[in-house]
Structure formats: C-alpha cells, structure tokens
Amino acid sequence: MLSRLVFLRSLAGGGLGLSLFAQKQKPPKPPDLEVVEIHAVRTDEGIMIDGIVKNTSGRAWVQVQLLIDFIGSGRKPLATRRGPIESTDLASGEESEFRLRVPDIGKAIDVVVNAEDVDKRELNVRNAGPFRIE
Hints:
By secondary structure, the chain is α+β, with helices and mostly antiparallel strands. The chain has one helix at 2-24, and strands spanning 33-43, 46-55, 61-62, 65-71, 77-84, 89-90, 95-102, 110-116, 122-123, 125-126, 131-132. It contains 1 helix and 11 strands.
C-alpha cells in the first residue's frame, strides 16, 4: 500500500513538472506575412508565379523579398528564386501583389513561399505552401 502511494505521488510530481515545462515554452511566433492568393503556372516561357501577400504583423515592412523554393518529387528542394513584392513599403494590414517569372525548373512540381525584409531578417509566412505548379 505504501509503495502504491509513493508511486502515485511520483506520477503526480512528474505530471506537474511536465505541466510547468509546457508553460515555460515560448508560444510560436505570430506570422508577419500571409499568402492570400498564389498561382504558379508552367508556360513555354518558364514558370510564372503571381499572387498577393498581406502584412499580418503590427509593424511595417520595407522592401520585402520573397524567396520561392521549387520542390520536386519526394519533397526534394531543387532551387530558390528571389523576387520583390510590388509595394516597397507594406504597412500593417496592407496587401501587395507579386509577380515572378523564372526559367523552367524541369522537375519542380510545387513552390513554397518564404520572405525576408530589407535587413535580410526572415519573416514568418502563414499559408506558405506547398502550392502545385499547374
């Protein structure tokens, strides 16, 4: 009986420790940008990617660069291409279009969107993909 009580107390103590550990972890960083819309199309001229991003943070972003990762079968990264959004200053809550044309990356089937600001700080992107290349 005493061993059972000791066992139950140790379980309760361990559970409390895990609970405190979970509370001390930082919450995930809120998104800075959100991909509102995107179309990736393979044409005779290469791959054309058009879309809209929205600033979902509480601060303005200057000279946002999108980093588009081209993904092949088996989720294998093939290449990354960089391109700006149309607005050079993107205030909180504003949207901006983007257009990127790149030579065809033959085995690419999906794209994933990443972003950085003028100081090359990585921005957290919500709804980043993968998006199918049509």
